[in-house]
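Researcher: Let's do a round of design. I'm pasting the C-alpha cells now; please hold your answer until I've finished.
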C-alpha cells in the first residue's frame, strides 16, 4: 500500500474562497527560520515582505536584525557578514553551491521561495515529504536491492528517487515553541511551514481569488446582455 501522511493537508488558502490564516503563516515562518533556514535560502523574499503576514514595521526591523546576511567590508572590500535590514533577502546559510553540497552529501538544498509551485501538487507533496520519512521496507529492498538507502541518505517514499539527502527536518514534537501557544506536533509544524511556503510562492493568492468573482459576475451579465441584443437585432427576420 502507498504510504499516506499522518493527516491530510487542509489549508485555509485552498479553494476558490481561500484566504491566508495569518497566525498560521507566522507559525510557519517560525518553523522556516528555526529549522529550514539552517540549510535552505528563500531568495525571492525580503524581510520587509513579512509585513504582509501581520508583522509591524518595527517587528520586521527587529526580525531582519536577528538574521545574518552576507555583506562587504567597506574598508577592505572583503566579504563579511552583518545583521539583516528589511530590504535584504532571506539568505542562504552557505556562501555558495560548492559549500552547500560539501555540507549535504553532495546534494544542493533548493531555494524554497517557489517550492510549492515547483513540484506537482506542491503543498501536499511538501507535507507528505516532511512527515513521510520511514524505515526502508524490507520487501522493497528484496525486489530492488539497488534502491538501498546509501550512507548519508534517508528513505522517503515521497522523494522521486526514494532516498533523499535531507535528514528528517521535523523529527520531534515540540521542536519549536510557538509564540501563540499552539502545540508543535510534527504534523502541526509541517502544516504550518507548508502554509507559509504556499504564501511565499503566491503572496497575491487572496487578491487573485477575490478578483475572480466580479469577473465571473461581469461575464454572466455580459452574456445575458449579448443574448438579448442578438434577439433584438434579429427580431425582424424570425
Ligand atoms: C531538499 C524542504 C529543512 C537539506 C528539500 C526539498 C524540499 C525541502 C521541499 C526538495 C525536495 C525535492 O527536490 O523535491 C525543507 C523544509 C525544511 C527543510 C520545509 C524545514 C522544515 C532542511 C534542513 C536541511 C535540509 C534543516 C539540512 C540539514 C536539504 C537537502 C536537500 C533538501 C540537502 C536536497 C536533497 C536531495 O536532493 O537529495 N528540502 N527542508 N533541509 N533539503 Fe530541505
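Researcher: That's everything. Go ahead.
Model: Designed sequence:
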Amino acid at each position: 500500500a502507498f504510504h499516506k501522511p499522518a493527516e491530510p493537508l487542509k489549508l485555509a488558502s485552498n479553494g476558490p474562497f481561500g484566504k491566508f490564516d495569518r497566525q498560521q503563516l507566522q507559525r510557519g515562518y517560525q518553523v522556516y527560520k528555526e529549522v529550514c533556514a539552517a540549510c535552505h535560502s528563500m531568495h525571492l523574499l525580503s524581510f520587509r515582505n513579512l509585513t504582509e503576514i501581520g508583522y509591524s514595521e518595527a517587528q520586521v526591523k527587529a526580525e531582519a536584525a536577528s538574521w545574518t546576511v552576507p555583506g562587504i567590508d567597506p574598508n577592505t572590500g572583503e566579504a563579511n557578514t552583518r545583521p539583516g535590514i528589511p530590504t535584504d533577502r532571506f539568505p542562504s546559510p552557505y556562501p555558495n553551491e560548492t559549500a552547500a553540497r560539501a555540507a549535504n552529501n553532495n546534494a544542493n538544498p533548493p531555494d524554497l521561495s517557489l517550492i510549492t509551485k515547483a513540484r506537482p501538487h506542491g503543498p501536499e507533496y511538501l507535507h507528505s515529504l516532511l512527515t513521510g520519512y520511514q524505515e526502508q521496507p524490507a520487501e522493497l529492498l528484496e525486489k530492488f536491492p539497488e534502491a538501498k538507502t546509501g550512507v548519508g541518505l534517508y528513505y522517503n517514499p515521497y522523494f522521486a528517487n526514494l532516498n533523499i539527502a535531507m535528514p528528517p527536518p521535523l523529527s520531534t514534537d515540540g521542536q519549536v515553541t510557538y509564540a501563540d501557544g499552539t502545540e508543535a506536533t510534527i504534523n502541526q509544524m509541517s502544516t504550518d511551514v507548508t502554509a507559509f511556503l504556499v504564501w511565499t510562492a503566491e503572496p497575491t493568492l487572496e487578491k487573485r481569488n477575490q478578483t475572480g468573482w466580479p469577473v465571473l459576475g461581469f461575464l454572466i451579465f455580459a452574456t445575458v446582455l449579448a443574448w438579448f441584443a442578438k434577439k433584438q437585432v434579429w427580431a425582424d427576420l424570425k
